[in-house]
Design a protein that fits this description.
The protein is mainly beta. It is about 10% helix and about 55% strand. The protein has a single domain, classed as Sandwich (Jelly Rolls). It is built from 1 helix and 10 strands, in the order H-E-E-E-E-E-E-E-E-E-E. The longest helix has 13 residues. It starts with a helix and ends with a strand.
């Protein structure tokens, strides 16, 4: 219960889309929806608009072996997506990449640390993205950027 309340407080404090992702989040499906039970896998859903030339990402803190299942769909042109982490010097390490209007994939953390699932709209028009993340019980959702 404490975890659920902390996650709800985080979503309220961070807002629907903050940091470097840009874009405005409007509409009935904009606010992230959390589904969590202590000690069991849980999920978060989020829908937002992403203007051309911008990106958005979800930051996760994962334990080695934790899995996250990512499912997304785009209303608009295909966009680039990836799952990455960062080396100690800040350089990115890419684990999964693609260009799609919809995808479902599972990422397993190779070590304890922070990992990011990212969407980049390299086009000029605005796209709407719907995302569902299914997370291991020990995975912490940090923020949307």
């Amino acid at each position: 219960m404490i975890r659920l309340l902390a996650m709800i407080a985080l979503v309220i404090a961070v807002g629907p889309l903050g940091g470097c992702g840009g874009g405005e989040c409007t509409g009935p499906n904009c606010t992230p929806t959390l589904d969590a039970s202590p000690g069991s896998p849980w999920s978060i859903e989020h829908a937002f608009f992403l203007p051309g030339g911008s990106f958005a990402e979800a930051q996760l803190e994962m334990k080695s072996g934790d899995e996250v299942e990512v499912e997304f769909s785009i209303d608009g042109e295909p966009i680039e997506w990836n799952v990455h982490g960062h080396e100690s010097n800040g350089d990115p390490i890419y684990y999964e990449t693609g260009t799609d209007t919809a995808a479902m994939y599972t990422f397993t953390a190779p070590a304890d640390g922070f990992f990011f699932t990212m969407w980049e709209n390299t086009g000029v028009g605005v796209v709407r993205i719907s995302v569902k993340l299914k997370l291991a019980a020990s995975t912490k959702f940090v923020a949307w950027f």
